[in-house]
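Let us practice reading a record.
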Amino acid sequence: MTKTMPTRLSLLAMATALAPAALTAQSAAPENLLPAEPATIAEETVEIDGTPVVSEEVVQAIDAMAVTQPEAPLIQVWTDESVRALAAIIEGIGEEGLMPEDYGLAGLRAAMAGESQQARDALASKAFQFLVEDLRDGRTPMSSRKQWFVLDPDHDRYPTGKLMADAIATGDVAGVLARIMPEHPDYQVLKAELAKTPAAETSKRKLIQANMDRWRWLARDLGSQYLITNVPEYQLRLTVNDKIVRTYRTVVGKPGRTATPQIAESVEGVIFNPTWTVPQSIVKGEGLGARVLGNPRWAKAKGYKATRHANGWVNVVQQPGPTNSLGLMKLDMPNKHAIFFHDTPSRHLFKNARRALSHGCIRTERATELAITLAILQGGLTADEGVAKLKSGKYTKVRFKKTMPAYITYFTMGQDISGQLRTYQDIYGRDAAVIESFGKARVPDRERVTDEQVIPIENDPRDIA
């Protein structure tokens, strides 16, 4: 079954023409999202600006084959050629923002000069193991990754023992290690910047080093299409094959308890015209429940409905509509942090240069454009169907055929949406712990999961400006 897409039609332009007046408050329409010429495409394929996009499963899931295969031993027999290749890599590992002294280079050289085979094998195996762990998983221990809640699957996808066996068998140690290096173009940009930054510029080099390591904390393969937002940049990207096809300004969590955490989750669908279940901290703590019950006319104007239970408990739900605090859409992204992307009626906030203003969730500029795009890309709708659901004013959930990865990251140096390398304000003060960890001895046997407390967000998306 195929679908023929409209010609020269911007999704947002269509939505603005057909949807309710509330939609026209969105920012100016971007360039067309659909192909310039008519295109017949497969049911699960869409083109964005000429880029074919095929729905895929989320990449955070750990590969079953990698888990079920037995782990190769961590001490193996090394050939002279492979040991020399390993030593050469360690000597140049500074190019990756790591330190040769972490990998026992002096001992390895001594072993090459005349130690027993057994001692040499032990030293080479340990050096390779540490290299893999740092290049694959990052050198920074969990205790220095503040509010980092991502489980990197690369530990299971690329077992250390298997990589070691391949390196020894092929003699191509560098080639095997290249399998686990970050693929993302931003990592390469940082690596190039590190190479041309003089040793005397220590502060800059440390910042580059920290942000290179942050890429290693993530999965090497982020997926062929995904959402990624860099909190300090206040930008969300819709990315296809590591190419940015759409960008959206964001409003993120205020510093402190409501700071937006770093997570990797799966978007399961789009909700048009969402409801907002008001947290009890607002219903009871701020007296909203009593106000809704005591002032029906005001409550109706604001879209609030209250239910008083037999035990006296009051629930308040804001109904869909132009005054809804979540705006006209939210992405369905179940997670233990209660973080999601949503619209807002307070669109003037996107004009602010600094937008760390929310209670943790991420408000998204041109959110209805994003919602319709994803409903087409992942939900199988046509543009007309998406606009119809939006303009209905009714709560409607469009489930995706396959989930879509979404990454909430924290980089204080990286490429901006125009491709220029920039530094960003460390709004949550997360750099210091990472940089400090590089000045300390390498931590062996590091934990894969943080022991930091998960703080579910009691989302208050009301106008806070």
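A brief commentary: DSSP finds 16 helices and 18 strands in the chain.
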